[in-house]
Design a protein that fits this description.
- The protein is α/β, with parallel strands linked by helices and 384 residues long.
- It has 2 domains: 2-175 and 354-383, Rossmann fold (3-Layer(aba) Sandwich), CATH 3.40.50.2000; 183-351, Rossmann fold, CATH 3.40.50.2000.
- The chain has helices spanning 16-30, 77-84, 97-107, 120-126, 133-144, 155-163, 188-194, 219-225, 240-246, 260-268, 284-291, 322-333, 336-351, 355-383; strands at residues 2-7, 34-40, 46-47, 50-55, 57-60, 63-69, 88-92, 112-115, 149-152, 169-171, 203-207, 230-234, 252-256, 272-274, 296-299, 314-317.
- It is globular and about 60 Å long.
- Helix content is 41%, strand content 19%.
- The protein is built from 14 helices and 16 strands.
């Protein structure tokens, strides 16, 4: 099978979409499929055997590392797409570059799968732009409803999309590499580094993009309530400078982006994972933390509710109350039996969510889409 993919973000940028996409490209190659990736200008030129076609792009205002492809670009894309002759086109979180793919794929009569990754209207509210949310939902609904199926990463997100008027919504869940992310990666060296030389202090960890919608600053109240606790912040982004000024400097370590075994060791060397963001459609980092044997402290909304259950795999807090996050951390800190139970169960749940299973489900969706496309073309030929 030949799959053409259009993405809004790719390496060297690091985020949940890129993480998912690299797993997908690896899996397509392993299964013997051929892929062609269209990504914004400035992306890596190749990934494994997959060629990357760069679409002219501009930097998003206020977030320079995010580059968006010009949605009206024509140029070389049609010729490259026609030359590749894909069986199916996959638009990942179509916003700008995805519109280029949508326009040309529809003109060619190709079957189009879209996947929903980012709650942009929800993020707009977190940025103080809530008035734009209705218009953003209308725009996203218009784009996705022009594709043949929209795949949501979680049941929670799928329900929200159906309620918002999205048609033909399916599920494409995510997995986790439980060999890489596991409690055995715990390291005295990493513990020393993440606690700034205080390895016996309880250690909270956050991993992910540092931007306003992630609400990492909410963790400050928990640290004020628990003066012996320390925090490790793994990741980077436009809010880093503000967070370095806001969070207690003497008890917080910023590592920047980590990957591979370094990231796995950071997870496993902490005591609990704190994730304040309330607009996640899935939460890859949450599942990685669970695979590493960490109890999760998370909001009571979003896609992560598919696998984070209060008192079973994590402690949930009221998503609109910063003080509730602090109380959730305190609840876990005061209950050793709960902490141990959550550690065991988190790992068990993560073991049931493999990347090969999740990606094979996606490939099955590709096959179904391609079959529908072939039937449509056959009907068209008979009618002609």
């Amino acid at each position: 099978m030949r799959v053409a993919l259009f993405t809004e973000t790719f390496l060297p940028k690091v985020d949940g979409i890129v993480n998912t996409l690299t797993h997908l490209l690896d899996h397509l190659e392993m299964r013997g499929h051929e892929a062609l990736l269209f990504a914004p200008q400035g992306s890596a030129k190749r990934y494994g055997r997959t060629r990357v076609i760069e679409v002219p792009a501009f930097s998003f205002p206020g977030y320079g590392e995010l580059r968006l492809g010009y949605p009206w670009h024509r140029g070389f894309v049609p010729a490259r797409l026609e030359g590749f002759d894909p069986d199916v086109v996959h638009l990942l979180g179509p916003v700008a570059t995805g519109l280029v793919g949508l326009r040309h794929a529809r003109r060619m009569g190709l079957q189009i799968v879209s996947s929903f990754h980012t709650d942009i209207p929800g993020f707009a509210r977190q940025w103080g732009l809530g008035g734009l949310s209705p218009a953003l939902w209308r725009a996203l609904r218009w784009v996705h409803n022009k594709t043949d199926i929209t795949l949501a990463p979680s049941m929670t997100t799928a329900d929200e999309l159906v309620e918002a008027g999205f048609d033909n919504v399916g599920i494409w869940s995510r997995g986790v590499d439980t060999a890489l992310f596991n409690p055995g990666r715990r390291s005295a060296e990493w513990r020393e580094r993440l606690t700034d030389g205080n390895p016996h202090s309880p250690l909270l960890l956050y991993a992910g993009r540092l931007s306003p919608e992630k609400r990492v600053s909410w963790i400050r109240r928990a640290l004020e309530s628990l003066p012996t606790f320390r925090l490790a912040v793994v990741g980077d982004g436009p809010a880093r400078a503000e967070l370095e000024a806001t969070l207690p400097r003497e008890r917080t370590v910023f590592t920047g982006w980590l990957e591979g075994e370094d990231l796995a060791s950071a997870y496993a060397s902490a005591d609990a994972f704190v994730f304040p963001g309330a607009n996640e459609t899935f939460g890859n980092v949450v599942l990685e933390a669970m695979a590493s044997g960490l109890p999760v402290i998370a909001p009571d909304r979003g896609g992560l509710l598919d696998f984070v259950e209060d008192g079973a795999t994590g402690v949930l807090f009221d998503s609109e109350d910063p003080a509730a996050l602090a109380r959730a951390v305190l609840r876990l800190a005061q209950d050793e039996a709960l902490w141990q139970r959550l550690r065991r169960r988190s790992r068990e749940v993560a073991l049931s969510r493999s990347w090969p299973d999740a990606l094979d489900d996606l490939i099955e969706s590709y096959y179904q889409a391609a079959e529908i496309g072939e039937m449509r073309q056959a009907t068209f030929r008979r009618a002609a």
